[in-house]
Design goal:
Elements: E1 2-6, H1 11-22, E2 26-31, E3 50-54, E4 69-72, H2 79-84, H3 86-92, H4 95-107, E5 110-116, H5 143-163, E6 167-172, E7 175-176, H6 187-196, E8 201-204, E9 210-212, E10 214-215, H7 216-227, E11 235-237, E12 242-244, H8 245-255, E13 263-266, H9 281-287, H10 295-310
Bound molecules: nicotinamide-adenine-dinucleotide and uridine-5'-diphosphate.
Uridine-5'-diphosphate is lined by residues 78-79, 174, 185-187, 190, 202-204, 209, 211, 245, 269, 272.
Length: 313
């Protein structure tokens, strides 16, 4: 198949590219590098089945030749990233989604939209099932991301219902692995960077808030299965092993025994969800998917990846 991936120079987009190239498909990567990096796709240059288009998907997109699948992964994804790029985040999840849905109609291509667990906000149902509508502050400090993703889901369903677009929606929960931006503030990469550099590990609040961490290879395998399934409503993808942020800090420190980093507590950011854990019953039933990489192994691989490049000399 010929597959277009928006956000192809990002963390998830680049791993998804590797998976789909390994399956023998032709990939057209699209990115404007607002949060992505050339380093993430440097290994792909010169591959015969890979091409790259520098383009902002907020602008209409023109692609020559057929397109069979569109994975819409483009969007700033970290709290630091989307607060820095508020308007761009809202636009890529509205106008950007719109443009790629139009392309899917034009090319008769199947379309998948990367949504997020943030659509559940600070959830009052726990773990989160797909039929829970969420608890989101529409003007809060995360609203440019979570409300935009909610709009993007609505837009996808409108094209599906009215225009008969062949669409899929995934709600991704916290995912970690190599190629995360070391300075985008997301918790796992921040703690690994801090521990490798003997800097204080910055736990926000008391660290009692919870997250559930999915390794990137599990996640992209799930994304591909959703695309090739026949299900149009949202599917949660994530690892249901829930832990507190303080536990995550301690676990990372235990995996970097030479680290002299102390754990320090910083003020809790506003609107930070207190709990988050996916109910993945739907993914299990429809896709036969569940995560298989143990956290220790995933964190170990990630530490190995960053060990040399991050340590300040
Ligand atoms: P990332 O920032 O590493 O990658 C996003 C990519 O999209 C970047 O390369 C960026 O330059 C590109 N991009 C942004 N706006 C664009 C535009 N207008 N035109 C073209 N390219 C654009 O983030 P990620 O972690 O790889 O996230 C990928 C997708 O998955 C996002 O949609 C994000 O909301 C979603 N998601 C990720 C997670 C996670 O834990 N990683 C969790 C939930 C949802
Ligand atoms: N967090 C933290 N210290 C950091 C970065 C994040 O304690 O240096 C916490 C943050 O408050 C949140 C959790 O870790 O409760 C996950 O944050 P992240 O930015 O990775 O993603 P979120 O799930 O909030 O979108």
């Amino acid at each position: 198949m010929r597959i277009l991936i928006s956000g192809a120079a990002g963390f998830l987009g680049s791993h998804l590219t590797d998976l789909l190239l390994a399956q023998g498909h032709e990939i057209v990567g699209v990115d404007n590098f607002i949060t992505g990096k050339d380093d993430n796709i440097a290994h792909l240059k010169g591959k015969p089945k890979y091409s790259f288009l520098r383009h902002d998907v907020i602008e209409p997109i023109k692609i020559d030749g057929p397109v069979d699948r569109i994975y819409h992964m483009a969007s700033p994804a970290s709290p630091i990233g989307y607060v820095k790029h508020q308007v761009a985040t809202m636009k890529v999840n509205s106008q950007g989604t719109w443009n790629l849905l139009e392309l899917s109609i034009e090319k008769n291509a199947r379309f998948l939209m990367a949504s997020t667990s943030e659509t559940y906000g600070d959830p009052s149902v726990h773990p989160q099932r797909e039929d829970y509508w969420g608890n989101v502050n529409p003007i809060g400090l995360r609203s440019m991301y979570d409300e935009a993703k909610r709009f993007s889901e609505a837009c996808t369903m409108a094209y599906h219902r009215e225009r008969k677009a062949d669409t899929r929606i995934i709600r991704i929960f916290n995912t970690y692995g190599p190629r995360m931006d070391p300075y985008d503030g997301r918790v796992v990469i921040s703690f690994i960077r801090q521990a490798l550099n003997n800097e204080p590990i910055t736990v926000f609040g008391e660290g009692k808030q919870t997250r559930s961490l999915c390794y990137v290879s599990d996640l992209v395998r799930g994304i591909n299965l959703v695309m090739e399934s026949d299900f149009h409503e949202p599917i949660n993808l994530g690892n249901p092993e829930e832990m507190t942020i303080l536990q995550i800090a301690k676990e990372i420190l235990a995996l970097i025994p030479q680290s002299r980093s102390p754990i320090v507590h910083m003020p809790m950011p506003p609107d930070d969800p207190r709990v988050r854990c996916p109910d993945i019953t739907r993914a299990k039933q429809i896709l036969g998917w569940h995560p298989v990489v143990p956290r220790r192994e995933g964190l170990g691989k990630m530490i190995e990846f960053y060990k040399d490049q991050l340590v300040k000399k």
